[in-house]
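Lecture notes, part 5. Sequence design as translation. It can be helpful to think of inverse folding as translation between two languages: the language of shapes and the language of residues. The source text, in structure tokens, appears below.
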């Protein structure tokens, strides 16, 4: 029984560390740009957990990399699709209407506010196919 509790605590701790670190990584080019060229290559994106299909949607000019402008435009475009009241955040109702499951919303709403903020939104975007 003690082992199960210990394993649960460790999983909880490392899960929260990962959850806290990942969203901030996905909000800026500099956090993903391992070679310093101010672009996100497909390899750098994969290492950050961005799927190939999302990468292709973000790479508007098709040059095989994502610029800060492309990243910003993609995030804004996707957010506008869901933010029906234009308040700058995605409510649970907006997310559910946009096709997100309640279970997924609860996973991505890390702070339990009932809204997806910028870092939560960035994390959700990066995990979509």
């Amino acid at each position: 029984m003690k082992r199960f509790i210990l394993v649960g605590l460790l999983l909880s701790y490392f899960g929260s560390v990962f959850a806290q670190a990942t969203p901030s990584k996905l909000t800026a080019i500099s956090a993903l740009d391992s070679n310093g060229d101010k672009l996100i290559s497909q390899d750098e994106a994969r290492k950050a957990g961005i799927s190939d299909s999302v990468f292709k949607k973000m790479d508007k000019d098709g040059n095989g990399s994502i610029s800060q402008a492309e990243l910003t435009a993609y995030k804004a475009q996707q957010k506008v699709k869901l933010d029906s009241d234009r308040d700058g955040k995605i409510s649970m109702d907006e997310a559910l209407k946009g096709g997100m499951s309640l279970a997924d919303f609860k996973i991505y709403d890390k702070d339990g506010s009932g809204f997806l903020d910028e870092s939560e939104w960035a994390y959700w975007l990066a995990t979509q196919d």
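The translated text above is only one of many valid answers, since several sequences can fold into similar shapes. The longest strand covers residues 40-41.
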